[in-house]
Amino acid sequence: GWIENTQLLLIALSIWVYYKAQQKTNPWWYVASGIAIGSVVIYKHIGAFIFIMFIVHFIFTRRNIRMHIWLAIYAILTIAVYAVIMYSSWGQVFIHQYASQINRTLGVNFSPGLNYSFDKVIQAIGSRYWIFFTTIFFMLYGIPLVIYRSYKVIKDKDRSENIILACALSAVIFLGAISLKSPHYFILLIVPLGCYIACDVILYLKPKWILLLVFVYVFLACITWNLRFGEVTSNLLKDTQEYAANHIPRDAVVFSTEPICSLIQQTCIKLEGKLEKDIEEAFKVSSWVLSYTSTTQDFPYTDGIKLATFYGFKDKVVVIQTKPNEIAKK
Hints:
The chain is α/β, with parallel strands linked by helices. Helix content is 65%, strand content 9%. It is built from 14 helices and 5 strands. The radius of gyration is 24 Å and the shape is globular. It starts with a helix and ends with a helix. The model is unreliable at 326-330 (pLDDT under 50).
């Protein structure tokens, strides 16, 4: 989403400031780098993986340990100041919302599109995401390459600058540790891998082979674009909105999630931020469920009657009637 895309720019800025700090003797560059790192985390919590990058890079280079400590202190202070200001303004609302985001990242809270097992990832690639040829290549080729090169750097005690390698390895470590629970964070892995592979290509291949690879890449990207946007014409949200307007009573209580709740006229209990026990309570007052999930994921909390299913490219909405007897009485 646009948040992750914007965060990539902030990450790039923080890496540039850190790179300048490595080149300069002025300690204020490390202070600025710490503030930049803290700002990345403030913007969105998933940016915490940038901490791992600087730890990995320090392990690679073994330089300026004191300056790295100051960097960490200012990063933590930046985050602490933000937390104090937000808590002073919003109190427990801030704590609840931030904890909810972290729980979704870790898979504690339910959220549409979460990957709950490795076989679901393979199923998603096989059924939907196979069209993203270049992305799959970056993953299958880039991850083993980054791990191998990192091993070589540590084994050979290479003290040269390896910031892009450190960034790619930290993304692999962090997103692997949380099992990539939220697929939209995948961009934070693919971009560093792509950058490292591009650096490798420029370093080791002749210009004519680089041009050939660029041509192949653009050709595959055009095929992907056509398969994704040219051949998929369904409008999942519009179909769901029309079904709710025509087939669900106006006074019904619906249990769903955004953006579904904003599209329908019925009273809607939102799924966001709820734990399993809260979801079970919501079913006691809901007569309809509009489950909005990825195509490889089932809505796990109800045994109601499935009346309709609408599909998008990577997501689906299932209309479930949880209390058909009460509806019939009305």
